[in-house]
Design brief:
- It comes from Sphingomonas tagetis.
- This is Phage T7 capsid assembly protein.
- This protein is mostly helical and 293 residues long.
- It has 14 helices and no strands.
- The longest helix has 37 residues.
- The N terminus is likely disordered.
Amino acid sequence: MNDVTGGAGGAAGGDGGAGAGGAGAAAIAGAGGGEGTGGQASGGAAPSWRDDLPETIRGDASLANFADIGALAQGYIETKRTASERIDGYKTDEGLKKFGEIVRPATAADYEISVPDGFPTKKADAFRDFAFGIGMPPQWAKAIVDFNNEQDADDLRAAEEASQADVDQLRNTMGADKFDTSLQAVRQMLEKSGVELAAEDMAHLDTKIGSSNLLKWMFDMAARVGDPGPVEGAGGASGGGQAMTPEAASSRWDVAVKDANWRKQAQIKGTPEFAESERLQNLIAQGRARKTS
């Protein structure tokens, strides 16, 4: 920049062409005038303030709108101020409202909201009205809904896996035969209680219940109601779902205590064997009390 200024000073005493060269250099330096205001340089085009710009941007057409460096700087300042005012304007409630009116669709029904199979549409319809009310762009609304659906699906999948693992652990602890026998007892208890379940739900009752604690409670309830009978295809006596007598309880006890696994499970509180043991002993005690009375 000092070199250019020096060149302008040296050209001040020359002819008109030299004076024009000095003025061009002075424009770059910010001097603005005084060193000569001659016209066209002899033998070529007048120097431009763009001559000292890098070659990669020197020929950009948009620069032709600026007569000199000062005009370019002024344009930059005004552009930045205008952009800042627009951005700051959207920080207010009124500004956001205007922005929403511009970017939202024509009606709430125009939002593309996907609903997973089997889910009600009430929530989706409510979100359409909400998104339209706040002026949400349709692309944003779709992205938010898709993200929410994915998260809900992941949460549901994780809950189902955790529930299945819980039930599987109970099945392993009880043993498959005991678990299936107890589950069949629950099915029969529910049917006799008037509970209506679809065949699919009844066939997969353990996963539908989905909690080992709830299964334990239902196993206990089935045991207290009465001997539900064996699982189809399995051996053993059937009580037909009727309340057990003290005599039947005594017979069942004599058979059960010979089963080492039953004796082991009967000592674990919360298992069907524990509940059955309690029930059998109570019935046997009631029978003895009647005989002595």
